[in-house]
Write a structure and sequence with these properties.
The protein is α+β, with helices and mostly antiparallel strands. It is built from 9 helices and 34 strands.
Length: 627
């Protein structure tokens, strides 16, 4: 580290900030506070749990003194390349990236504990960028985001290092620095004004996590301009491009990626109907058609056919890398193993063996294995069998010449089984095979379910596949609905077989965030509704407020309830609070006085006072338990 009062110098002699072993690029970033202390984040890319790139806290009493730096190993966030800043109200913020997607996180306690914002899973930017001249740039990577602040500390722009999908040079190594201004409410209002009055039936197309613009038509008596359409898009979050449908058409037509519940997807609506202002091209007044799967449409999924499990220790959840063998020291309820149980193309068999070992050692009550609904992966035996059958070409997306589209899978070597294809579940035979093959893989008594990754399908994480396989917007819409329908079929079939699907818990690839001081009463009232006892719950544990987190869970949980973490987590996330033994419930949640929620258990009463943010857990505890 070196510093100067001006970029022109003079610069202080470089000093080495304490690092970690093994020596790595820590991506250290942070802020210097008024008292000369430092608060920031650094990343560990050692490949160990909880993921290949995990962010941890770094603090220093004096930013100039290397001896005061503390590289805290406590896990904070996933992803890498943090840029940290403090807003004018004293709020701490961070932007990170993974691939071509960026996420926004915050700290409510001065940079000591971090989390991604709940809305939209924290997604701040995606893979499509509309330039000032109207060109849409689709990016393969958007790395090293940096916050650009004005003189008053307000975020005005974000820069990033970009690798485009197309035109990447002879060796695909073309990169450039991209600066994107941050939208303001004033700019958005000006654009909406430019569009003119909206038809009443298109004004309320609001959806959780996003806004669909297709069908946002101007008054039938007024023709929009290309500039007005472009202005509406540029002022609307999640829109990467919009074009005017042309003379005689009173609608703007999307050519973009929309964010819906944190997922970037191509616009799935076609051109506006040119003859009737009352049609919205497949989108119905009040919102888009309901997604076929309960894992994505916000409706509760059917619970698994499991016996009620009220023991708190056996109601915990963790989702680690398998890395050939996961060896926890604590007793978990559900262990959902990510990939890499094997490097020889026998992932499913290897996962069964690891699950058997975990259960034999008493460190897992239930165990899940990994599958993918977008990618046909050769290192999964059941999917390799489908790929190797030459008669199944129609089950996968194809190049324009008709051959199956494949690309290398580079997350880790799989012994020559790295090539991956993309499922096309518009083919109902492929959909049926997928469901049956996954159930066959889950037939072992040691396996209780699956983590079905990428339930929405193309173009999640692989937007370039759309152009390479000549998919139209209508094709993508049909493919995504078919993929979601396959997920629903998998959920129903798994429940019937006594198994389950992680995403059916209703929190995507993660876990449902629990209450916080500002949301406590509202969260508890919603979850305390008696009818919600029949819904499965996978609640994310808050280690920084462990007692409140456990109390909330015990007060609201139903017969199928888990407390823990999703993708990625590991044995280091274990909390001693999980050893509490409340017994069995003897009633449901009660509120009284206002803002105080409680539930009677056979060993005592669990209570959470949302007014004071205080929990009461008068239960005995098991002794510290380790293998």
């Amino acid at each position: 580290m070196s510093w100067a009062a001006s970029a022109r110098g003079p610069w202080a002699p470089p000093v080495l900030i304490p690092s970690v072993q093994p020596l790595i690029d820590t991506n250290l970033a942070g802020v210097i506070l008024a008292n000369d202390s430092f608060v920031g984040l650094w990343r560990d890319n050692s490949g160990k749990d909880p993921g290949p790139s995990a962010l941890h806290r770094c603090t220093a009493a004096n930013w100039r003194d290397p001896s005061t730096y503390v590289m805290d190993g406590a896990f904070q966030l996933n992803e890498e390349d943090p840029t940290v800043w403090v807003d004018k109200r004293g709020g701490f913020h961070v932007l990170t990236h993974s691939g071509c997607q960026g996420r926004h996180g915050f700290s409510a306690d001065g940079g000591l504990n971090w989390q991604y914002q709940q809305e939209g899973n924290g997604v701040a930017f995606g893979c499509g960028v509309r330039l000032g001249n109207g060109t849409l740039v689709k990016t393969r990577r958007r790395e090293r985001p940096h916050a650009v602040l004005d003189a008053e500390g307000r975020l005005v722009a974000v820069t990033s290092a970009v690798q485009p999908v197309e035109g990447g040079g002879a060796n695909g190594d073309l990169t450039f620095t991209l600066a994107v201004p941050v939208r303001t409410a004033a700019a958005r209002n000006a654009a909406l004004t430019a569009m003119g009055p909206l038809l009443p039936h298109t004004q309320a197309l609001q959806q959780p996590g996003g806004v669909c613009l297709n069908g946002r038509c101007v008054d039938a008596g007024k023709t929009p301009t290309a500039d007005a359409c472009a202005a509406l898009c540029s002022a609307t979050p999640w829109c990467s491009g919009m074009t005017w449908a042309g003379p005689g058409n009173n609608c703007c037509q999307l050519d973009c990626y929309l964010r819906y519940d944190g997922v970037f997807q191509p616009a799935t609506c076609g051109a506006c109907d040119q003859t009737s202002a009352n049609k919205t091209s497949g989108w119905v007044p009040g919102g888009p058609p309901l997604a076929p799967s309960c894992a994505t449409n916000g409706r509760p999924c059917p619970p698994p056919n499991w016996a009620p499990e009220w023991n708190l220790t056996r109601s915990t959840a963790v989702q680690p890398w398998c890395r050939d063998a996961f060896t926890p020291a604590h007793p978990w309820g559900l262990v959902s193993l990510a990939w890499d149980c094997s490097e020889d193309g026998a992932e499913e068999a290897a996962t069964v063996a690891v699950c058997a070992d975990l259960k034999a050692r008493g460190v897992a009550t239930r165990c899940f294995m990994y599958h993918n609904q977008e990618l046909a992966l050769r290192w999964l035996e059941s999917q390799r069998a489908a790929l190797d059958d030459g008669g199944n070409a129609g089950w996968f997306l194809r190049w324009p010449n008709g051959t199956v589209y494949t690309e290398p899978e580079t997350s880790r070597a799989h012994g020559g089984y790295e090539a991956q294809a993309f499922w096309d579940f518009r083919n109902t035979t492929a959909s049926s095979y997928f469901v049956k093959s996954v159930l066959a893989a889950l037939s072992s008594p040691y396996v209780d379910g699956t983590f079905a990754d990428d339930v929405d399908g193309v173009p999640d994480e692989h937007p370039w596949v759309v152009n390479r396989t000549n998919l139209t917007a209508a094709d993508v819409q049909a493919l995504r609905r078919a993929t979601q329908a396959t997920n629903m079929a998998l959920i129903n079939a798994s429940v019937a077989a006594g198994k389950y699907v992680w995403q059916a818990f209703g929190a995507g690839d993660g876990a449902t965030r629990g209450p916080a001081p500002a949301t406590c009463a509202a969260w508890m009232r919603e979850r305390c509704a008696p009818e919600r006892q029949g819904e499965p719950l996978l609640q994310q544990h808050d280690a920084a407020a462990a007692n409140q987190s456990v109390a909330a869970f015990l007060v609201v949980r139903g017969p199928i309830g888990l407390l823990g973490w999703g993708w990625y987590s590991n044995d280091k996330n274990w909390d001693r609070a999980f050893l509490l033994q409340p017994g069995t419930p003897e009633g449901l949640c009660k509120e009284g006085p206002t803002g105080v929620f409680s539930r009677k258990w056979s060993a005592g009463v669990a209570a959470l006072d949302c007014n004071a943010w205080v929990a009461d857990l008068p239960f005995p505890s098991l002794p510290e338990w380790r293998v």
